[in-house]
Amino acid sequence: MIDESKYQETLRTLLEVPGEQACIAMFLADFRPMTPPAASGDNMTSREICDALEDICQCSTNHVARAMTALGYRLHINEYQGYEWAMRPIDKQENQPSM
């Protein structure tokens, strides 16, 4: 279980960083870490997250990895794709940070 208030506080901190980190934080506002890490159709690699944001910003896999680890995401090993971030979309009822 993640600490929702800590997650949102870290999101707000990332939103204050100009450029890529803020874009990644806005993307991750719709997700939470899956604990424990497990297989899921919602898991994504750093490259997949960069590709999802390519029309918004030019982020690197290192930018994504920094944001993901700061927010408490953990890696899951997908037997076909290799390492991916264990993540789940939030329910519509879950609180979102004020951006």
Explain what you see.
With 99 residues, the protein is an alpha+beta fold. The chain has one domain: Orthogonal Bundle (Arc Repressor Mutant, subunit A), CATH 1.10.10. Helices cover 39% and strands 14% of the residues. Strands 1-4 form a two-stranded antiparallel ribbon. A hairpin with a 3-residue loop joins β2 and β3. The radius of gyration is 13 Å and the shape is globular.
H/E topology pattern: HHEHHEEE
Please, what is the average pLDDT? 92
**What structural class is derived from the secondary structure elements?**
alpha+beta
Describe the global form. globular
Give the biggest beta sheet: 2 strands, antiparallel
Cα distance spanning the termini: 24 Å
- What is the CATH architecture annotation? Orthogonal Bundle
Query: Class, according to the CATH hierarchy?
Result: Mainly Alpha
List unreliable stretches of 5+ residues: none
Counting structural domains, the number is 1
